[in-house]
Amino acid sequence: MEDLIDFKNIKEYNAFNNQETLHPLVSVVDLDLAAPRQGRRLRYEFYTVFLKKIHCGDLRYGLNNYDYEEGTLIFLAPGQIIGSNSEDYYQPQGIALVFHPDLIIGTPLAKNIHDYHFFSYAVNEALHLSEQERIIIMDCLSKIEYELKHSIDKHSKQLIVSNIELFLHYCTRFYDRQFITRDHANKGILEKFEELLNSYFLSDKPLNKGLPSVTSCAEELHLSTNYFGDLIKKETGKTAQEYIQAKVIEVAKERIFDADKSISEIAYELGFKYPQHFSRLFKQRTGTTPNEYRNLN
């Protein structure tokens, strides 16, 4: 059994799933038509969205108790790998929307595709749909499928790409809903983030490792960087980087009153490589330099 199967184009993926190729750059794939297969690692060189039933064998991602269990959307950007090797056979279930980056070249979607952060979420940060949301998603997919089965004309590409964009807009709305309906869980993450920063600045880590990064904090909390960043933004109105910087300034204000330490020493203790970078951030945030703040209070 191959350790990794790399799908370089839509035609290869369609063939793998017993699906007819109607367009070389985009497909709506009925995974129920695929033959039973063994678990393996798969890489896709195109954008991939899976609409999965909550309980299915081909993607093992350990779902816990969720509010919505009518279906799950999982998003992969080109080059991402999913799955695991297994000797067990399973029957794929669900639908996949796959589209190659070349499809959207020259369209507004090409300029905005990186704004859809969920293509970089981890699998366990999937979008869980209500019944009504699933109906809307299926309607979007059916419109794309209709265009694929329709004779190609001068409108085809625009309509396909526009419907993919509509689909992604709905996914953004539904993720916003998911952040809200899991408010309790999100606040738990926010509390852990705050505790993480507090303990970080009470240790010698800033001196040895520098300032905490958004990526390192996300890893500590077992979240993908983009999901973590979006969650913090939704909960606080600040980016995760702004939140970290606010904590740095909060700690700095306390330490500035230690007359036995120079501003440079405080900067190094906070994790800054260069004291002038600390002074610049402090002035941006407070309107005064560290020395001015020390003398004013």
Please explain how this structure is put together.
With 297 residues, this protein is of the alpha+beta class. It has 2 domains: 178 residues, Regulatory protein AraC (Jelly Rolls); 113 residues, Orthogonal Bundle (Arc Repressor Mutant, subunit A). Helices cover 48% and strands 13% of the residues. The protein has 12 helices and 10 strands. Strands 2-9-5-6-10 form a 5-stranded antiparallel beta sheet, covered by helices on one side. A 3-stranded mixed beta sheet has the order 1-4-7. It starts with a strand and ends with a helix. About 5% of the residues have low confidence. InterPro entries: Homeodomain-like_sf, HTH_AraC, Tscrpt_reg_AraC-type_HTH. Pfam families: HTH_18. It comes from Chryseobacterium polytrichastri.
The tally of strands reads: 10
At CATH level 3, the topology of the largest domain is: Jelly Rolls
Taking all Cα atoms into account, the compactness measure Rg is 24 Å
What is the assigned CATH homologous superfamily of the largest domain?
A: Regulatory protein AraC
Annotated CATH architecture of the largest domain: Sandwich
Secondary-structure-derived class? alpha+beta
Shape: elongated
Can you tell me the CATH class of the largest domain? Mainly Beta
Distance between the termini: 70 Å
Unreliable stretches covering 5 or more consecutive residues: 54-68
Oligomerization state: single chain
Number of helices: 12
Sheet with the most strands, sense and barrel status: 5 strands, antiparallel
Major beta sheet, strand line-up = 2-9-5-6-10
**Estimated share of beta-strand residues:** 5-15%
Q: What is the number of independent domains?
A: 2
Can you give the helix content as a percent range?
40-55%
Mean pLDDT figure: 90
GO molecular function, one term: DNA-binding transcription factor activity
InterPro entries: Homeodomain-like_sf (IPR009057), HTH_AraC (IPR018060), Tscrpt_reg_AraC-type_HTH (IPR020449)
Domain HTH araC/xylS-type: 191-296
Protein name: Helix-turn-helix domain-containing protein
